[in-house]
């Protein structure tokens, strides 16, 4: 420790040559360097590269763009295929598995091998895949690529190893599931139809075996032709030619009738005794018009004909509504006897399945539920109740209920916060759900503790609480000032959130340049929302007159902050009627409102319109409950609000924050002759990212030397380029990036000012992928050098990140004080010391003093994140206030007082001095400073060819590290404080802005991002969690005895009612059918291995499966031994009899 104290003393008295501005602090990309003064730092770093590994853990949400659906009635598993080639397999809550086809081709159809632990997928690239589900991470066992024909339909009979495959040419092929090789048996379309037929029947749209006889295959063609093919005789039993196109076919369980759905909205019922015409034709939703004709109806895309033992049959179909009304919702119709129930859906129906009690198609089906897959939802309807209620979905399928615009990930939350949020959120849940258990109950999953890793935190996701921010505002009315422009738009879209779990204070930044502060309470209350309006529209290039300076708080001198502008401003106390510009975008509710338990709005802060121009979007936010302060900034400046006293403490332009410490020589500018409207920039940060056309991401901050007009130029879009380090030039202010990702400027003229809010999932950009010097110069430019001394063309810089904490505002400070760290888009970190009254009564009455005259630190690129370490290398948390319920009844004996928890740098290191380490990360660089000397200890250039989109200082293995996600898809971790590279993985190429805006790290080696508009992908960068991930995941396959087929009795079997079996192996095998043409399909072995199909791979379920198989084999051997023993006894008796007869003959 003495050695380290000497190092600190040496740094404190070091010469200015070791500071951040000196060349000694620069380093090559990816190489950490240190200043000359600190030869050694006595901090024991415990993190090593072996502690880190990157892998995906689990995916939450609704499968994006679903295409197919399948259900295993014995295992109770549900599979959903998507357009991107993904498969989600769902079982009981906790059993949720995601698989991905390497080709990325859309999944056309799914077929479970019922109770076999396998799944067949047919993809749009005409490839069949066999997946092994007997392991926690399913893998492909076999693939079969069709070369000359396109797959249109597949059918796998129960307990059969032969898969029927229909093609676009009308042919039907047969695939052996075990070997995944085509059989030589082919049903050609020209043999299936009559020779006299001159037209092609079209693609195969249906295949099914007859419940009465498995040797009869029903083939449905798109044109309306239906053929029953006798597999043994290799000929057609009958052919049906119908005028309307067929979409689906469904058998009656007795095999004597089947029902078809057609393109004209009709259902036809066919009897096998007479196939010349349909037995019955119905238009369920077709009304008879006055002229006697049926009105035209939409196609019925699918029909299911299911019988019930105790009631009338169920006929369930999708579509079929009449065309009389435009804009009608998609429907699912349930016909049960004479009753017809129409269920309206919120989204188009992709597919539906009827869940039945038996897997055998020749038994009474007894349906109990319908699974309906919609474009953006999954619904399960209970058929056992007459009102057909839906089941409550236990999976978090409604993540996209409101388009996702930002994410925040919190680990190690207080243990009491989750139960209280769940209990209050449960009161607002919808009612009317079915009381029965969720029918999709397959797989096994247990809450186990693996090496102190709580699986409930790492695997499952549950919706706890929902909050609507629009309730704090009046509804915009037509003609109501600025609100008239927002009526048809989305002015309440959330742009940024900040949450303090300890104090339960929650802040929301909206797209309309507003901030809402919420407090948590377990009781309902009557409250009036306080509104503050801030004028943060500063343009330092204009000439400021004395009178203008006196009335504009943005230009108040840093040393004096007169209190005349710090009083709360209610929604009604605005500027005089004549000046309508100084108004906010939204109108806060002025009346007393009754708020339920949960998060209750307390304060609303809004930026004002000025001179007909809307306010710039808020780019950074931080709140500290111990200080009672809230800070936010945009490209114009910084504002600090005391939310306890409801006053504005500071409102200054970024340039004024420097004072005499401005590192740049900014040239004075003459006032603009013609004020150009900047209203086109209002609220651009989200709205522009929703553009339909793909936009090129802007490159990093460019060096001023050699660039036209002193700024970078995008040769593609024709505007200034920078992802984050971009300032607003005179007359054309540009929106910089917030700490969560870059923003894009609009192309072309036009006035937004508010676009309909869409999610971050809609954002798409294109990134240059070439690494040549030319493309790199055009796309990812070099970052500005720290020695740049003149930015005459850049007069505005945005506030990109903020952080409250105990620190040293000045080099001469002996003790840490409350400070605000401010990061800007020009790579500057500013320290603003504050003086906050410590006594509770004084805190509510005395003003907080803020003096923006602290230190200035500089980095390359826009500043993204701050973090603080003590001199032992431990992470210093921000101080906070312990939560107290302000609406609870006050105890006179125990008055409520604020309980503050401070983590001062000096409290944990009495032996090593009063200093601490500050970690600052920008889009290009990370630096570690020693406070209060502000000396640079370590520098690491994170990237030269790309830029950092997200950086977080997290705790892993009880140590701190810096985690970064770059625009080139690399995920990196750096040790602290030495900034040694620990992990660098090329994980995810940045293909759209959704990933950039939603990627975030948290403690414990976890991270997440929005992988699609409807799905959240969680990943881990912890080696320990990767090693134990298999134990955390649920088992998909569970050994279950297959239900036995019902004994149908002698009479039914005698009169032909029983199903007939036949040997498919004898019919389709190579010995009788021969080999298929090699050019027709190509077999591709999978990575799962053939042995995976025979036994489960790992886990307790695998042991049970192996034990069961061994028991079956042992029983089989015992049975064979018993047969041989009986045979030997019979032979012995016969021999004894013959011997006795021979002896009698001799006598």
Describe the structure.
The protein has 1147 residues and is mainly β. The chain has 16 helices and 63 strands. The N and C termini lie far apart (116 Å).
The helix-and-strand class reads mainly beta
Helix content: 10-25%
Enumerate the strands of the largest sheet in spatial order, edge to edge or round the barrel: 1-55-54-53-50
Main β-sheet, in a few words? 5 strands, antiparallel
Number of strands: 63
**Poorly predicted parts:** 1-29, 33-39, 448-457, 540-579, 668-794, 906-912, 1089-1102
- Tell the overall outline: elongated
Assembly type of the chains comes to: single chain
Through-space gap between termini: 116 Å
As a percent range, the share of strand residues is: 25-35%
Radius of gyration, CA atoms, in whole angstroms: 36 Å
Separate helix tally: 16
InterPro entries: Lethal2_giant, LLGL2, V_SNARE_CC, WD40/YVTN_repeat-like_dom_sf, WD40_repeat_dom_sf, WD40_rpt
Membrane topology: Peripheral membrane protein
Pfam family, one: WD40
Organism: Gouania willdenowi
Show the helix and strand layout.
Blueprint (H helix, E strand, L loop, with lengths): L1 H11 L20 E2 L17 E10 L4 E7 L4 E6 L3 E5 L5 E5 L6 E7 L4 E6 L3 E6 L6 E8 L4 E5 L6 E6 L4 E5 L4 E7 L1 H4 L11 E6 L6 E6 L3 E6 L4 E7 L4 E6 L5 E6 L4 E5 L8 E3 L17 E7 L7 E6 L11 E6 L2 E6 L4 E8 L10 E8 L3 E5 L34 H10 L22 E2 L2 E2 H4 L35 E7 L4 E6 L3 E8 L3 E3 L2 E5 L11 H6 L41 E3 L2 E10 L12 E5 L4 E5 L3 E6 L4 E7 H5 L25 H4 L7 E2 L68 E2 L6 H7 L19 E9 L9 E8 L3 E8 L4 H6 L3 E2 L5 E3 L4 E7 L10 E2 L18 E2 L14 E7 L2 E7 L3 E7 L6 E9 L2 E8 L3 E6 L5 E6 L6 H6 L1 E3 L3 E7 L2 E8 H5 L1 H4 L17 H5 L9 H5 L1 H4 L7 E5 L13 H48 L1
Parallel strand pairs: 36-38, 43-44
Antiparallel strand pairs: 1-55, 2-62, 3-4, 4-5, 5-6, 7-8, 8-9, 9-10, 10-63, 11-12, 12-13, 13-14, 15-16, 16-17, 17-18, 19-20, 20-21, 21-22, 23-24, 24-25, 25-26, 27-28, 28-29, 30-31, 32-33, 33-34, 34-38, 35-37, 39-40, 40-41, 41-42, 45-46, 46-47, 47-48, 47-49, 50-53, 51-52, 53-54, 54-55, 56-57, ...
